[in-house]
């Protein structure tokens, strides 16, 4: 697929280097079109080295090839990351004063804009009106993330992570998103869970885990790109891939209810969420106060926990002896002195009764919140193990759906 990657002038331009690598390593041909301002942050030589072709930013370079028209006409996808407030305004009003904005006017393929700017600029009525105009015209404008910005500032306006942008952009293209994609999930309804559950202690505090939800969103994006109708039950606030229905939940019980209610009509169910094993037996109605007893300055409340339901097992039990839906479980494993990761994963596959188990290698700084994972795919009734990684989460997602497609096709 031919991708034009536009880069505008913001400090987040350095993140576009990782986005470029994700596209090229997936087999796509990428032409980088940086604005003049962006070259103050990342130089032209970097783009050329990473893409394997010259970066283009001047309207009057190679005039005989008419680049201001050709790039947009020949592209299968145009992505601008970061998209500054200036680029959003120019795109909304049809201005074309450089090669990137000319390309946006001539493109007839999906266009994805990933904004990045300070919070005040993002929330300004002019920017919001420009975004609304672009979306009305069919341009895919991602919502920015919230977090640390330049200097000490923090808030909405942070560029989304490269893997999120890549998944969102490729899903916008549909069946052309992956080299060799064949729409092999067309006509299927897939149900996916994502993120880590939060179990409330009181109105302020909760028990949780480190899951970011990135893998679940990558699974949703890849399934949509393969033609599936996708329902994503999520505990996180991430930009949804185009065409994906998102159901927001928080606790394990809410996740359980949402998954069981929707699983019966699905062709495949993937439990990628990290569900808390326990929850408080009672939720305090007001904030639990820290005691200040001079006789016992270290006093702390005792929290009674109860076990959460095993949603994966309940999904298998609800299915009964039927062959549909195909059910995929995820397991975060480390191994210890009593057994290695694969032995624990095999035991879990047998106990859960799902069709495919994806065993995640986890640990301090490994998998949770990261862009790279290593997983092992174990299929019920088979001794074969497929190892994927270290690889980005989109590659893991593709491997999971490849396995699901193969299971659905098996007699």
UniProtKB/TrEMBL annotation:
<feature type="binding site">
    <location>
        <position position="277"/>
    </location>
    <ligand>
        <name>CTP</name>
    </ligand>
</feature>
<dbReference type="Pfam" id="PF02441">
    <property type="entry name" value="Flavoprotein"/>
</dbReference>
<feature type="domain" description="Flavoprotein">
    <location>
        <begin position="1"/>
        <end position="169"/>
    </location>
</feature>
<feature type="binding site">
    <location>
        <begin position="309"/>
        <end position="312"/>
    </location>
    <ligand>
        <name>CTP</name>
    </ligand>
</feature>
<keyword id="KW-0511">Multifunctional enzyme</keyword>
<feature type="binding site">
    <location>
        <position position="352"/>
    </location>
    <ligand>
        <name>CTP</name>
    </ligand>
</feature>
<dbReference type="InterPro" id="IPR005252">
    <property type="entry name" value="CoaBC"/>
</dbReference>
<dbReference type="GO" id="GO:0010181">
    <property type="term" value="F:FMN binding"/>
</dbReference>
<comment type="similarity">
    <text>In the C-terminal section; belongs to the PPC synthetase family.</text>
</comment>
<feature type="binding site">
    <location>
        <position position="348"/>
    </location>
    <ligand>
        <name>CTP</name>
    </ligand>
</feature>
<keyword id="KW-0460">Magnesium</keyword>
<keyword id="KW-0285">Flavoprotein</keyword>
<dbReference type="GO" id="GO:0004632">
    <property type="term" value="F:phosphopantothenate--cysteine ligase activity"/>
</dbReference>
<feature type="region of interest" description="Phosphopantothenoylcysteine decarboxylase">
    <location>
        <begin position="1"/>
        <end position="189"/>
    </location>
</feature>
<dbReference type="InterPro" id="IPR003382">
    <property type="entry name" value="Flavoprotein"/>
</dbReference>
<dbReference type="InterPro" id="IPR007085">
    <property type="entry name" value="DNA/pantothenate-metab_flavo_C"/>
</dbReference>
<dbReference type="GO" id="GO:0015941">
    <property type="term" value="P:pantothenate catabolic process"/>
</dbReference>
<comment type="pathway">
    <text>Cofactor biosynthesis; coenzyme A biosynthesis; CoA from (R)-pantothenate: step 2/5.</text>
</comment>
<keyword id="KW-0436">Ligase</keyword>
<dbReference type="Pfam" id="PF04127">
    <property type="entry name" value="DFP"/>
</dbReference>
<comment type="similarity">
    <text>In the N-terminal section; belongs to the HFCD (homo-oligomeric flavin containing Cys decarboxylase) superfamily.</text>
</comment>
<comment type="pathway">
    <text>Cofactor biosynthesis; coenzyme A biosynthesis; CoA from (R)-pantothenate: step 3/5.</text>
</comment>
<dbReference type="GO" id="GO:0004633">
    <property type="term" value="F:phosphopantothenoylcysteine decarboxylase activity"/>
</dbReference>
<dbReference type="InterPro" id="IPR035929">
    <property type="entry name" value="CoaB-like_sf"/>
</dbReference>
<dbReference type="GO" id="GO:0071513">
    <property type="term" value="C:phosphopantothenoylcysteine decarboxylase complex"/>
</dbReference>
<comment type="function">
    <text>Catalyzes two steps in the biosynthesis of coenzyme A. In the first step cysteine is conjugated to 4'-phosphopantothenate to form 4-phosphopantothenoylcysteine, in the latter compound is decarboxylated to form 4'-phosphopantotheine.</text>
</comment>
<dbReference type="InterPro" id="IPR036551">
    <property type="entry name" value="Flavin_trans-like"/>
</dbReference>
<feature type="region of interest" description="Phosphopantothenate--cysteine ligase">
    <location>
        <begin position="190"/>
        <end position="411"/>
    </location>
</feature>
<dbReference type="GO" id="GO:0015937">
    <property type="term" value="P:coenzyme A biosynthetic process"/>
</dbReference>
<keyword id="KW-0210">Decarboxylase</keyword>
<feature type="binding site">
    <location>
        <position position="330"/>
    </location>
    <ligand>
        <name>CTP</name>
    </ligand>
</feature>
<feature type="domain" description="DNA/pantothenate metabolism flavoprotein C-terminal">
    <location>
        <begin position="185"/>
        <end position="406"/>
    </location>
</feature>
<comment type="function">
    <text>Catalyzes two sequential steps in the biosynthesis of coenzyme A. In the first step cysteine is conjugated to 4'-phosphopantothenate to form 4-phosphopantothenoylcysteine. In the second step the latter compound is decarboxylated to form 4'-phosphopantotheine.</text>
</comment>
<feature type="binding site">
    <location>
        <position position="287"/>
    </location>
    <ligand>
        <name>CTP</name>
    </ligand>
</feature>
<keyword id="KW-0456">Lyase</keyword>
<keyword id="KW-0288">FMN</keyword>
<protein>
    <recommendedName>
        <fullName>Coenzyme A biosynthesis bifunctional protein CoaBC</fullName>
        <ecNumber>4.1.1.36</ecNumber>
        <ecNumber>6.3.2.5</ecNumber>
    </recommendedName>
</protein>
<keyword id="KW-0479">Metal-binding</keyword>
<dbReference type="GO" id="GO:0046872">
    <property type="term" value="F:metal ion binding"/>
</dbReference>
